[in-house]
Amino acid sequence: MTTHVKETVKLNNGEKMPWLGLGVFRVEEGNTLVEAVKTAIKQGYRSIDTAAIYANEAGVGQGIKEALEETGLRREDLFITSKVWNADLSYKDALQAYETSLEKLGLEYLDLYLIHWPVEGKYTGAWKALEELYKQGRVKSIGVSNFQIHHLEELMKTAAVKPVINQVEFHPRLTQKELLAYCQEQDIQLEAWSPLMNGELLEEELLKDLADKYGKTPAQIVLRWDLQHGVITIPKSTNEQRIAENADIFDFELSTEDMAQIDQLNQNRRIGPDPDRIDF
Questions:
Q1: Which backbone phi and psi does 157 adopt, to 5 degrees?
Q2: pLDDT (0 to 100) of residue 27
Q3: What is the residue extent of each domain of the chain?
Q4: Whether pLDDT at 3 is above 70
Q5: What φ, ψ does residue 107 adopt, rounded to 5°?
Q6: How many Å apart are CA 180 and CA 227, to the nearest integer?
Q7: Position 2 confidence tier, pLDDT thresholds 50, 70, 90
């Protein structure tokens, strides 16, 4: 197993975040979740991404606790992310939501805390709460999720702390070129959720052809494409073999031509909600 899976990128506040992490969206509480988290950490993953709304922070915390006991790693070797849900975006509620997430995870701090969705009229107030947690040293880094350019511009009008991350739906069918360029220009790191479109991309002929060419799987081709675009990626899996496979993307490089071919799969097609039309 290559140790490159632990490679990190320096965020705009100087903290380091792994390029690859494990996502746990739609993984229910229970042994499968605990084992997936443990497997990932034993395979060299150091980043785990969850959220209050996933209702699985306790299982993630249990997996982390057991993995640390079994590997001898320390808490500070890991990078743990969670997110504040839309119902808790007032200043007071966001502060309380952070405490609740910590309690469920069994942790004393998070490495990254995100605003999950840009609910109009609410996210700037919530950001003040995240800034407060950050200034107190309760969280190492703060960021956002599912923000478009105009949301980021609005936030930055009043923000004292710039987000380190914008975690968005990003994959070859939704390449978000303008958003990626804007974030790179602003030194906000883009992070991809659902990089494999819930597995839909794995049947794409071009990706199958490239997988044959490079001796990799279609999933590995997509995850490598993320990295070469400078985008952090957090594929979800509970399968031990796939967790290992998803990490095996640091020993090859896609050519410029092949990157461009994958870019051309773009259809501006989302599988998740449109951040400009959220009603939840």
A1: -65, -35
A2: 83
A3: 3-263
A4: no
A5: -120, 160
A6: 13
A7: very low
Name the residue among 69, 59, 6 with its Cα closest to residue 31: 59
Angle value at C-alpha 228, between 223 and 233, nearest 5 degrees: 40
Residue whose token pair is 């995870």:
105
| 3-state SS, residue 153 | helix
Q: 45, 54, 123, 134: which one is catalytic?
A: 54
Predicted TM-score (pTM) of this structure: 0.96
Q: Which residue has the higher pLDDT, 154 or 5?
A: 154
| Whether residue 54 lies in the annotated active site | yes
pLDDT in tens, 89-133: 999 999 999 999 999 999 999 999 999 999 999 999 999 999 999
Which fold does the domain 3-263 belong to in CATH?
TIM Barrel (3.20.20)
59, burial (CB in 10 Å: exposed 0-12, middle 13-18, buried 19+): buried
Q: Are 20 and 172 in contact (CB under 8 A)?
A: no
Q: What are phi and psi of 22, to 5 degrees?
A: -100, 125
Q: Which residues of 145-179 are buried (b: 16+ CB within 10 A; e: fewer)?
A: bbbbeebbebbeeebebbbbbbbbbbbbbbbbeeb
Calculate mean pLDDT across residues 175-197. Answer: 97
